[in-house]
Amino acid sequence: MLTLMGTLNSPYTRKVRLMLLENNILHKFVIDLPRDIDSKIAKFNPLKRIPVLILEDGTCIFDSPVITDYIDSISESDLIPKDIFNRMLVKRWEAIADGIMDAAVQIRIEWDRKIEQQDQLLIDKYNDAISLALSFLDHELHSKTFCHGSSITLADLALISAIIYLDFRQPERNWREQYPNIKLWYGHIYSRDSIQDSLLVCV
């Protein structure tokens, strides 16, 4: 059985969990916070980052885009299209969603510092990057049900993971009023069983 290590609130971990859930791939989810003193993450990923996917033979896969590619390779779904051009477009959605996650995580790191040590220019820079990315994605979505094509793909799973994280860490960000196309898309996607399952503790 595959073992996924990560945390419940990590958007990168959620993206990978959604890939596993949407593909109905049996796995064990182990919650491990890298900054905890008894964390085992460093044993599997020298960068001490999550998520980590451990294969049955003990092989460790890390960095979420690498993991999503691997999951796609062992599944029969079209969460990542086989056609080169459409695959690129879906992976581009993933890259933008990951960029939103990266920026939101960096903001969180700054906010965790003492007020006098926070770099407001850096916070503003990352917030601007998130706003620009959301504006771009809102334009790309138009009124579509799915980010790419006529069915769910990794593009949707990556973006929903980023948006859920924004709601968790930046509830003051009024994205629903500013980006109506994302709001409409979110309403379609959020109710999926995989999304709801990813919100639950699963050990």
Compact overview of the structure:
This protein has 203 residues and is an alpha+beta fold. The protein has helices at residues 11-22, 41-44, 64-73, 84-111, 120-141, 154-169, 175-178, 180-189, 193-198, and strands at residues 2-6, 27-31, 52-54, 60-62.
Q: Main traits of this protein?
A:
alpha+beta, 55% helix, 4 strands, 4-stranded mixed beta sheet, 203 residues, 9 helices
The helix/strand order is EHEHEEHHHHHHH
Low-confidence stretches: none
Shape: globular
Radius of gyration (Å): 17 Å
Number of helices: 9
What does the oligomeric state look like here? single chain
The biggest sheet, with number of strands, parallel, antiparallel or mixed sense and barrel status, is:
4 strands, mixed
Q: What percent of residues adopt helix (DSSP H or I)?
A: 55-70%
Mean pLDDT level: 95
Fold and architecture overview:
The protein is α+β, with helices and mostly antiparallel strands. It has helices at 11-22, 41-44, 64-73, 84-111, 120-141, 154-169, 175-178, 180-189, 193-198; strands at residues 2-6, 27-31, 52-54, 60-62. α1 runs parallel beside α3, α4 (84-111) packs antiparallel against α5 (120-141) and α5 crosses α8. The longest helix is centred in the middle third of the chain and has 28 residues, at 84-111. The protein is globular, with a radius of gyration of 17 Å. The protein starts with a strand and ends in a 5-residue tail after the last helix. The relative contact order is 0.14.
